[in-house]
Every structure is written in structure tokens, then in C-alpha cells.
Design goal:
With 147 residues, this protein is α/β, with parallel strands linked by helices. The chain has a single domain, classed as Glutaredoxin (3-Layer(aba) Sandwich), CATH 3.40.30. The chain is globular and about 35 Å long.
Length: 147
């Protein structure tokens, strides 16, 4: 896992890149193990439900998994997500962010808040508490009071 203060590696996000998004404001990048699984679905839906709150801070949201881009797109459409999901079946992004499970190749459930300077402001890892990642990102971006 990347630590606070480390630079966030760039990667493609549709027609843009992470660094292009960072020019507009902070970015919440959440890594999730597998589309259409219960915890991943709940986590992505929570990011959807609180997306406007995050967007008011100028933040973008991007989800990344080891799924194919087709599977990521289907997952996005099934939940009506207003933010992009990036499929990384080769695991290059997962390795760059140090979130890849060694044997299975899936992403660990990790959420990063990346500042406009391109550095990690916050990193949160919890395999079971997907919704808590959203609250932590909101606290980091100051959309809700500290816990």
C-alpha cells in the first residue's frame, strides 16, 4: 500500500489520466476486489450515493479493479455510477499502487485520497468495511465532521 506523502502513479481513466483529473482537484481512487460481489456493490453504491458531497469539494472519484474493462463498464451501468471504473486485468495499476493480492491477482480493498499535488493524502485498507472507506474519504476532504 502507498503511504501518505508518496506520489500517486499516473494511469489512464477513460480518455483522461489521473494526473489530468488532479489538475481539476483531489481524486478519490478506490480499489475493489471484484465487480458484482456484495461488499464491492455496497461500497460502489455508497460512493454513488455520496458522490455529490465529494464533488462539492472539487474531488473526482475513480474505481479500479482487476476486472476486464467490459465487466467494469457493466458494473458501472448496473449501479448508475456517475464516475468511471477502470478495469486492470493485467494488474499494472494494482502493482503500482501496491494493492494486488499476490496469489489471486485481485485488488485489496484500499481507498486513497490523492491531493492536487499528486501525493497520497490518506490511505485506508479494510477488506470488509467498504462503506467506511467512503466516510473516511469524506472526512479527509472535510465533507463531514471527524468521527
Amino acid at each position: 500500500m502507498l503511504k501518505r506523502g508518496e506520489p500517486a502513479p499516473d494511469f489512464a481513466v477513460g480518455r483522461d489520466t489521473l494526473h489530468v483529473l488532479l489538475a481539476r482537484g483531489p481524486v478519490v481512487v478506490f480499489f475493489y476486489p471484484r465487480a458484482f460481489t456484495p461488499t464491492c456493490t455496497a461500497e460502489a453504491a455508497e460512493f454513488r450515493d455520496r458522490y455529490a458531497e465529494l464533488a462539492r469539494t472539487g474531488a473526482s472519484v475513480v474505481g479500479v479493479s482487476a476486472d476486464s474493462q467490459d465487466r467494469a463498464d457493466a458494473f458501472r451501468a448496473s449501479l448508475g455510477l456517475p464516475f468511471p471504473l477502470v478495469g486492470d486485468p493485467e494488474g499494472a495499476i494494482l502493482r503500482a499502487y501496491r494493492v494486488r493480492w499476490p496469489l489471486v491477482g485481485w485488488a485489496r480493498r484500499v481507498t486513497y485520497v490523492i491531493g492536487r499535488d499528486g501525493r497520497v493524502q490518506d490511505a485506508n485498507h479494510s477488506e470488509r468495511a467498504g462503506k467506511a472507506h467512503v466516510s473516511q474519504a469524506c472526512r479527509q476532504l472535510k465533507t463531514e465532521p471527524p468521527a
